[in-house]
Amino acid sequence: MPKQKIVIGMLANAGGAGKTTLAVHLAYETSEVGQSLRLSESALLVFNLN
Predict the structure, then answer these.
(1) pLDDT by residue (tens digit) across 2-41?
(2) What gap in Å lies between CA 50 and CA 44, rounded to an integer?
(3) How far apart are the C-alpha atoms of 20 and 39, rounded to whole Å?
């Protein structure tokens, strides 16, 4: 049976919202049950010009 892939997205338009902390905790807990996880983080800048 092929491994199941799960995609989790975390978005917030503010710094200090805990996105990175949550991602690291998910990675740790995933490794504790013997699974692997790939983390990718990027900044999404949205500007309101009105």
Answers:
(1) 677 777 887 777 778 888 888 889 889 988 988 888 887 7
(2) 19
(3) 10
Please tell me the predicted confidence (pLDDT) of residue 23.
Answer: 86
This prediction has a pTM of: 0.61
**Residue appearing with tokens 């990027």:** 42
Question: Structure tokens of 14?
Answer: 């503010």
49: its two tokens: 């010009």
CA distance 24 to 7: 15
CA angle 11, 41, 19 (to 5 degrees): 45
Q: Is the distance from CB of 30 to CB of 37 less than 8 angstroms?
A: yes
